[in-house]
């Protein structure tokens, strides 16, 4: 009986600790909101990588000294930082006040709305140009300082060609996932500054910190610096890349990956097992794979069809190589060629080199979270 009483007392103490943690989180939230306001006033970027790295390092050392798992402390800190970045989104610094007004072509689309909201948070005047107000195009664009084209890939050239003449000092930019053809269309249309952007994220992000944006130079890069600085203030990670190299990279990163996911999703839909059946007996890593497949099918079929079709002719060689690799692997399995499979595994492992160990460590945390989510799903079902 004493054991039961002791357990109750310990649980009460744990509850008190949890309540103290909640109070500390509230205090930290208030402090980070103050930091956000100061950054907004000073025009400072939301994300300071050096500060973040030093903070994580210091707290890990403190955790080790107190016998607390440093990985646990880092997980908590990173989750709190993400929350802080989300809380600091309401008012953002304006890097280039002269870059106003901004016109977003295709502003009623998901990505157009995302950029419009972010620019407005930084104090810019934002105008939207879409199908429903096309007749106002000349008026809306007459004094524009930045025109950001956010339309489907297959419609971009026509949309850009139909734009009225832009002011000489206006920046013309696009945010499509292909860069060579769009940049060519922008450069042919406008004699002023031109830049191609590819946000490597979708419209469902909670904040912009650490989000990757590929920047492809078009014309007069000096006059595009205000836009680039604004992206940095939002916390974006910018990657400068030649348009041709970008498209070649996207053929592997996007087109081939989307194609593989698309095919696998179709394959699953034709099986006799329900998704619930598969999830109920899945390991954490398969839970993650299912999440990524499901994520694709939760989004716009037009968008992903356009992405795959836009570069299909350019990836036929990659597709042939992929198919050949699949068939070679299938042959080894049919022949029971274990040595051949091991050799293929070793060759692929060399490509990943030391990154393989890093990926293994990084993925462990993701797998733990996937497993936690699976437990929560179970709890909700009972």
Main attributes of the structure:
seven-stranded mixed beta sheet, 7 strands, globular
Description of the molecule:
The protein is of the alpha/beta class and 382 residues long. It has 15 helices and seven strands. The protein has a seven-stranded mixed sheet, with helices on both faces. The radius of gyration is 25 Å and the shape is globular.
β-sheet strand percentage: 5-15%
Helix coverage percent of residues? 55-70%
Extract low-pLDDT stretches. none
DSSP helical segment count: 15
SSE order and pairing:
Blueprint lengths: L1 H41 L6 H17 L4 H18 L14 E4 L4 H12 L4 E4 L7 H5 L4 E4 L3 H9 L9 E4 L5 H10 L4 E6 L12 E8 L5 H9 L3 E4 L2 H27 L5 H6 L3 H14 L3 H10 L5 H19 L3 H15 L2 H27 L1
Parallel strand pairs: 1-2, 1-3, 3-4, 4-5, 6-7
Antiparallel strand pairs: 5-6
Helix pairs in contact: 1-3, 2-3, 6-7, 9-11, 11-15
In short:
This protein is α/β, with parallel strands linked by helices and 382 residues long. The chain has helices at residues 2-42, 49-65, 70-87, 110-121, 137-141, 153-161, 180-189, 225-233, 243-269, 275-280, 284-297, 301-310, 316-334, 338-352, 355-381, and strands spanning 102-105, 126-129, 146-149, 171-174, 194-199, 212-219, 237-240. A seven-stranded mixed sheet has the order 2-1-3-4-5-6-7, with helices on both faces.
